[in-house]
């Protein structure tokens, strides 16, 4: 009786709960747009956010309930195996692998560490590829992959919630406040699309060789009316191609092609790159096409945006490449010849970009690379010589190919990699007292000079085997660049006091720094003239170092006579001719530069009048600066401060002092308040023990401006 009575209330309660559950109103989900934008939805239809945005409000539907499955015996066994492996990993007693991987080529390295270190393996996961050189964790991933295949085989659900989720990690790099636009709305018109593609092939591709033209070109026909029918990675890659093509255009060409300015075209397609990268979840879905898009986009940032921010972004590129195993040669990993070759091209381009940005930012690139990498330089082959279905390794073609310019870059990259003390050697050559206790020995300096001489010989040998001026403009450019590289390296490794010019205007290390600055700008002029008729001048213009020019302008305020001064004033005219944006004094950097140029010209004018007795012809840039400056009589007295590498000076811009760079904010996700930094603290360049300015690494001695580097 008691038992029966005690069970009655419980049954009644259960019945009430069941009725309550059946009468429970259905759960209302946030609308599709609010879910995608990750904002709060008021769960009314239409919701307030959609009403405000004047878009259609689409209610979300709950995912269908997954069917309950009986435990799979094979899955249980693999779980047990995975647990055993993890226990072995915890006790550091790994066993031999169960399955023997297919044999791959095992090269012999000079570095003993590279010989005993495992080659690693590529793990395919979530639609991407990740590199892993831990044997035990690689085995664990093999087990997890097999387990996932078992689960997927039993799963009738085609959709994957994770694949439909936007990549929130991208906000750390690209920025969360992207405009409410779609890549489709930013896509070029059909005529513009093919014109941009041709410009990229003519002006950019010969100097980068990142893409395989025969593989990518068929996608253009599918994307003529928009990117709806092409993969997301290809969409991002084509947007990067469009961006680089606009970089290679002049202002007049851009206006004629689009009907609007070059800056507007760059902003449009750059925004398309960023949106496409976010849509492809580039930080977690690693594939070669998306990485190609990211590398080309980073190259397009040169000369346009803050080089420090671009270098930080390239660090992300380097980490993604390392995660994909690009630092290990494809032959070692057992990849196909085609994929191995494309990975080599991309890896060596990443090395060059990273080394260049590092030098521009005053850093040595060597510690930023993976400690051990063995990726071979690309082959001397044309795109037509390699095909995705190839099974035999590619061999170097005898004679000229379209790879000549990139092969020269890779030779110099190899020189940088194997000469980690390059900056110290140059500083010891050009600063009195630098080569002493704690500095490089005479034997090390001699070894460095021999290495530099070997670089020149290797470049000559490369050109003799694979270069022919009749093969096209890029081969003519390669010959000119070889001369400039050898000449510049030879000059930098030669002690100033034994140079023929020592003793005249060049009497101290400070005057030698002025000579190097003048020579650097003259080197730029040679590049401009050599490339302007070949379509490659953009490559030199993006390497212009404005801080070198500002240093020269400051020196001209108190250096008034001599052949070196005459050469410097000629370079002032060259710079303003090829960089007319410097005449826009709405930028703080350009405004400061204008003050020093006008002050230096007043002194220059006085000297010329006293020497010749007549008023000299006023240069065009002085007339234009006087027309836009309030007055050139308010310049500061005394020697002007020598400008240092501040982020406000890294690239031409038109922002007012204290105004934030929106692209930097996007690249850094809005976490750095650039406008709050006090740039005046960097106003003067520190002096060395000889009384001369301490140049920032080898870049300020001119190497940073080499267009081929």
Automatic annotation (TrEMBL):
Gene3D superfamilies: Zn(2)-C6 fungal-type DNA-binding domain. Residues 1-22, 90-113 are annotated as: Disordered. GO terms for molecular function: DNA binding; DNA-binding transcription factor activity, RNA polymerase II-specific; zinc ion binding. GO terms for biological process: DNA-templated transcription. It is found in: Nucleus. GO terms for cellular component: nucleus. Keywords: Metal-binding, Nucleus. Its main location: nucleus. Residues 30-58 form the Zn(2)-C6 fungal-type domain. InterPro entries: Sec_Metabolite_Reg, XnlR_reg_dom, Zn2-C6_fun-type_DNA-bd_sf, Zn2Cys6_DnaBD. This is Fungal-specific transcription factor domain-containing protein. It comes from Podospora appendiculata. The lineage of its organism: Eukaryota, Fungi, Dikarya, Ascomycota, Pezizomycotina.
């Amino acid at each position: 009786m008691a038992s029966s009575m005690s069970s009655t209330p419980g049954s009644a309660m259960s019945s009430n709960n069941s009725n309550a559950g059946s009468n429970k109103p259905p759960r209302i989900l946030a609308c599709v747009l609010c879910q995608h934008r990750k904002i709060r939805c008021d769960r009314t239809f239409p919701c307030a956010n959609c009403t405000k945005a004047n878009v259609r409000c689409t209610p979300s539907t709950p995912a269908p309930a997954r069917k309950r499955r009986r435990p799979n015996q094979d899955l249980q066994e693999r779980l047990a195996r995975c647990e055993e492996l993890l226990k072995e990993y915890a006790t550091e007693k790994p066993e031999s692998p169960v399955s023997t991987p297919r044999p791959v080529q095992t090269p012999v390295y000079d570095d003993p560490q590279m010989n005993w270190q495992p080659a690693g393996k590529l793990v395919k996961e979530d639609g991407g590829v990740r590199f892993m050189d831990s044997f035990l964790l690689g085995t664990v991933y093999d087990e997890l992959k097999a387990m996932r295949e078992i689960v997927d085989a039993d799963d009738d659900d085609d959709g994957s919630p994770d694949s439909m989720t936007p990549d929130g990690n991208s906000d750390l790099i690209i920025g969360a406040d992207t405009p409410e636009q779609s890549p489709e709305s930013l896509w070029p018109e059909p005529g513009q699309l093919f014109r941009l593609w041709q410009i990229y092939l003519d002006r950019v591709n010969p100097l980068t060789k990142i893409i395989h033209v025969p593989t990518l070109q068929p996608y253009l026909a599918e994307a003529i009316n928009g990117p709806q029918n092409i993969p997301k990675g290809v969409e991002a890659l084509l947007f990067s191609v469009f961006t680089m093509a606009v970089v290679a255009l002049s202002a007049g060409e851009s206006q004629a092609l689009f009907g609007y300015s070059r800056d507007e075209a760059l902003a449009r397609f750059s925004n398309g790159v960023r949106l496409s990268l976010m849509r492809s979840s580039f930080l977690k879905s690693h594939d070669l096409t998306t990485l190609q898009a990211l590398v080309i986009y980073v190259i397009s940032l040169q000369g346009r945006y803050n080089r420090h921010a671009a270098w930080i972004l390239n660090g992300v590129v380097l980490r993604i490449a390392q995660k994909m195993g690009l630092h290990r040669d494809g032959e070692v990993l057992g990849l196909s010849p085609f994929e191995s070759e494309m990975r080599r091209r991309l890896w060596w381009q990443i090395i060059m970009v990273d080394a260049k940005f590092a030098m521009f930012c005053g850093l040595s690139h060597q510690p930023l690379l993976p400690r051990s990498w063995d990726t071979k330089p690309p082959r001397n082959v044309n795109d037509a010589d390699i095909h995705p279905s190839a099974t035999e390794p590619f061999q170097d073609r005898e004679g000229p190919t379209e790879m000549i310019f990139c092969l020269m870059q890779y030779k110099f990259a190899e020189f940088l990699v194997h000469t980690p003390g390059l900056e110290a050697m140059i500083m010891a050559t050009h600063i009195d007292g630098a080569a002493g206790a704690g500095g490089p020995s005479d034997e090390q300096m001699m070894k460095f000079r021999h290495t530099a001489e070997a670089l020149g010989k290797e470049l000559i040998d490369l050109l003799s085997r694979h270069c022919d001026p009749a093969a096209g403009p890029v081969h003519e450019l390669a010959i000119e660049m070889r001369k400039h590289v050898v000449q510049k390296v030879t000059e930098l490794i030669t002690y100033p006091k034994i140079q023929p010019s020592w003793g005249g205007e060049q009497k101290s290390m400070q005057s030698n720094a002025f000579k190097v600055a003048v020579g650097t700008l003259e080197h730029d002029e040679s590049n401009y003239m050599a490339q302007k008729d070949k379509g490659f001048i953009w490559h030199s213009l993006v390497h212009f170092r404005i801080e070198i020019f500002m240093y020269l302008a400051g020196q001209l305020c108190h250096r008034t006579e001599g052949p070196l001064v005459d050469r410097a004033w000629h370079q002032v005219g060259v710079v303003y001719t090829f960089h007319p944006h410097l005449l826009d004094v709405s930028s703080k950097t350009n405004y400061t530069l204008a003050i020093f140029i006008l002050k230096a010209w007043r002194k220059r004018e006085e000297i010329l009048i006293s020497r010749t007795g007549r008023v000299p012809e006023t240069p065009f840039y002085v007339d234009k600066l006087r027309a836009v400056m309030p007055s050139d009589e308010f310049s500061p007295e005394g020697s002007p401060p020598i400008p240092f590498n501040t982020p406000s000076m890294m690239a031409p811009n038109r922002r007012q002092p204290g105004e934030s760079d929106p692209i930097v904010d996007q690249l850094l996700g809005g976490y750095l308040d650039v406008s709050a930094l006090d740039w005046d603290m960097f106003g003067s360049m520190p002096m060395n023990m000889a009384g001369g300015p301490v140049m920032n690494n080898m870049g300020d001695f001119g190497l940073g401006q080499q267009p081929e580097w």
